[in-house]
Amino acid sequence: MNPIDCPLCRLDQSTVLFAGPHWLAIDAQDPVYPAFTRIIWHAHVKEMSDLTRLERTDLMGVVFEVEAIMRKHLNPDKINVASLGNQVPHVHWHVIGRWHNDPTFPDAIWSTKAQSADERARSAAHRKSLARRLPEYHDALINHLNGLYS
């Protein structure tokens, strides 16, 4: 994929939480899964093995830092960490907070699962509550990454 056509190369800058030396941490702005942070390597490379050992270590270190801050500030029931990139061949990682009442738990967020009306209502109420806590998480993440990378 040409970097000009790559959605991860043409990001809406309002989603960027932190620009590291070789990567970005962004709010994926998923309305159903609001605790969804994406870590994107700046250079347009397809696979983790395209990075040097040091670059891989740097990238995974950030993924683990994001996970730790998410756990501390949002207290999810589980965190999914994934690097799929099947549609966008550009190295990036998904760090996704999951709760028992989200629409597809315990399955992957990309799966489909029928919810009852009561489950949908509880899930929507939880997302609304979580949305109020996201600014605290984002601020903590930015401050933490600033301390590590500035």
Question: Which key phrases capture this entry?
Answer:
single chain; 150 residues; alpha+beta; HIT family, subunit A; 5-stranded antiparallel beta sheet; 18% strand
Describe the structure in brief:
The chain is an alpha+beta fold and 150 residues long.
Spatial order of the strands forming the largest sheet: 1-2-3-5-4
Uncertain segments of ≥5 residues (pLDDT<50)? none
Give me the CATH superfamily.
Answer: HIT-like
What is the structural class?
A: alpha+beta
Largest sheet, described in full?
5 strands, antiparallel
Q: What is CATH's topology name?
A: HIT family, subunit A
The CATH architecture comes to 2-Layer Sandwich
Text of the CATH class: Alpha Beta
Q: From the alpha-carbon coordinates, what is the Rg to the nearest angstrom?
A: 16 Å
Q: How many separate structural domains?
A: 1
The tally of strands reads 5
Describe this structure in words.
This protein has two helices and five strands, in the order E-E-E-H-E-E-H. By secondary structure, the chain is α+β, with helices and mostly antiparallel strands. It has one domain: HIT family, subunit A, CATH 3.30.428.10. The protein has a five-stranded antiparallel beta sheet with strand order 1-2-3-5-4, covered by helices on one side. Helix 1 (53-74) crosses helix 2. The termini are far apart.
Topology:
Blueprint: E1 16-19, E2 23-27, E3 36-41, H1 53-74, E4 78-82, E5 92-98, H2 117-149
Antiparallel strand pairs: 1-2, 2-3, 3-5, 4-5
